[in-house]
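Predict the 3D structure for this chain.
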Amino acid sequence: MPIWKITSKGPIKVQETKLKHEKLLEENLEDWIIADPSILGEPLLIIGRQVIIPDVKDRLDILALDPQGNAVIIELKRGKLKDPVDIQALRYASYISKWRFEDFENQARLYLRKEGEEFNFNELYEQFCADAGIDEVPDINSDQRLIIVGSEVKDKLGSVALWLREHNIDIKVIEVEVYREGDTIFVQPRTIIPLPVSKFAYTGRGSRGEGQPWITDGKTWHLEKRCSPKTKEILLKLDDLIRDNFEVDGPRWNQKFYVAYRVGNYNWLAIKTFSSALRLEILVKANIFNQSELARRLNIQEFDKDESFAEKLGLPSSVMIQNRNEFTDRIILRIKEGFDLENKAFIDFLKEAYKAFPKL
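Done. Predicted structure below.
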């Protein structure tokens, strides 16, 4: 779609050109994205440029994180986008999928040239998430995404990208249109895959569930998309335990980030789903439970809201009690693999927490 300049003589079409005609290189594309990642249409935290993958010596163009905790592999091409760029990007994603938290921390330190203990990657990522409007900081590298950027998408790449999306691989393809007026270059990135959704798509519809899989099939969304095989197994066992022992309305699967169990018209228990852990948030009357005593009873550790993101990630199963107001507390249990759901102490605690629900 052309760009028009409005003058006193009427609209004048700005001349379209090509990156190669302007003698612009892939590194120029990199410069623009590094300077302002939102040029790709979303918030991204850049943590690497020309990242060398250990052992295999492959080099990916840009590595970033998004506010959902995904690792984002960005591959750039000055000319037409064609294979094998798709296979190349998939190969890079497979490498990055094996990275641990400290790998991302070391990469960010290297990229930002931060030396010594003063560099706090946790605070950097937490602030990035907060700026993006994310209250609950997600686990890093919960999944991997691909963004491929170039001047023209070839049919082969478009077909492969659509097939990958149909098979739940998050790939985004962006075409960059370039215009020139005098000495000024204009760049217009356009997302080709996936196709943009019209803001009028739901106008006149009675239901807005389409396009929101947690509404249309929340159980599959949480078990297959949010959980790993390990946390899926824990969630299914926990669901059986809750429904067998308590009179609750649930599970309610239709929330994006959590599964709810209600008593009356209020959530007693919300289970936030992640690939590495389940986060149980239980509403109880104030001052019924003591955090240290509860940690001892359940044989788990305590964590504090002031601890860093990495410290929370590094803990095994753990507990914290937050005071909400003079009437209620919220007990937060972070359950990981190895936590014994059939332990009598845990079941007894849940029964006490159920009786301590403020609405009973």
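The CA atoms of residues 209 and 216 lie 6 Å apart.
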